[in-house]
Amino acid sequence: MRVAQFAWLVIACAGCVMAQSVTSGSAKFSLEIAGQPVGNADYRLTPASQGFHLQASYSFTSKGVAVKCSREADLDAHYELLKDSLTVNASGTDEDVFVTFDAGSNQLTYQLKSSVQKIEETKDLHPGTVVLNNFDPSGVQHLVWLAASHPAPDGNYWALLAQGKGVYLPVKLTAADAGAGTLNGTKLVLKHWQLEISGVSTEIWADSQNRLMEFDVPAQSLVYKKNTFELAATETQRPLAADGAVEERSVSFVSDGLKFAALLALPKNRTAPVPVVVLVQGSGPHDADETVGPNKPFRDLAMGLAAAGIASLRYDKRTHFAPQTFQTHPDLDHEVTLDAVAALQFVSTLPEIDRSRIFLLGHSLGGTMAPVIASDFLANKQGSLRGIIFMAAGVISVDETIERQMTFQAKRHDASPSAIEQMQKQWQDVFATVKDANTPADRVLGVGALQAPAGYWRSWLAQDPAAELAKLGLPALVLRGIKDIQVSEKDFKRLEEANTAPGSVGEQFDGLNHLFMPVAGESTGDEYFQPGHVSPDVITTIAIWMKTLR
Fold this sequence. Notes:
By secondary structure, the chain is an alpha+beta fold. The strands form three sheets. The protein has a 17-stranded mixed beta sheet that branches.
């Protein structure tokens, strides 16, 4: 059951739903060794009955040996392999490799046949498996699709080395600083990963739509890159707070039987207990910094607020370090609410904190759930809450939000009116089925890679943040970037109208996107993977508002 991946895609995970999935496409690559061209490669992905069909080929000549390879693979709707076959011809000698995957028995079967050897082995199947073959970019592209569709915990995947006698080994994929480049002279913002394969470090670069642009193996002086693509140098992140202004501690708390790693940021030169804000991320397998590409919005907030005299607690989400526990309880309470309540209870016990000035900040889905979090925390009577900060909170129902986001991205990619209408009809049918009381809660529904049990969809449809906020009577600060393409002005207005308690404020910021970072031109989601920082104006607004509430 693939539940958590959906939560990582919709609304809050900065990257928009359409940027996370690929439905078809093709690409051609050039292969270089030590800076010299040695061959070419290509792949094509097309929709199929069970998900996708992948075709790929490459040819190159190295050290006098001419090699050709063709590949045919079937993937399910979540980009997991169903079967794979490769034919490699080296100087006239053929070698055939067949790989089949049986998720039911959790087995992988590997067969190699040639004129000189035959191998057949059965191995335990691990989720997140890719087939890698020296000069075939389709294997690396498959890994990028997997990482975008449903990221593995801690970046741990498995690779079957097709021509390595079926060696099956763990590999590590780690997000690195974003980059920039050009394709046909058009500037691109690039995602960047480091992939370690049996001690060999490699570099992967892809565009914001998860299309592979370049793969480098420095130890082999090997590069393959998409035709007409050129990689450019990138800037590095700069620290937000002045050195010495912040004291940061690693702490932990327990929620629902899980131990959560957290970071407590404190003003370094405090002389008395200080106000504190608990930071709750948007949807996705976020770490404590709410990392998106090279950006760390929650670290920006924590450093900036500590420099202004305000403490904060941020923590790794359970979907980041223990996604399997969420899959057994696929609902928003287990994704967000329970753990945020435990975090509030934890800060209420700290001697450095002014317990009369505890605040809750939710970004995107964290903001959607903030009123429920606040209500549950107060019901437990284990502490008080002074106010709520909503940053780009989704308030409109999830069915309307998905249709709006999907339509925006489809138009951006020049989809035809009929294709857009068909996509909208698919999602309308999905939610009609979800709302049908006869639909079992565990029935998985969705379109393409965006699948979730009906019960999960229902837990989202049941949310009404504006109504919950009105019941609470707590002061709130409602914030939105005017260039936010994920949360609309309609969301902002509805929440602002419900925000009637004394001390409540609503403000929209010119030029800022969903991450509250400046963006030149219109926001598309691509800029999330370009280094930036939360606007100081936003941090100052939050700090001033918190300090005025005594």
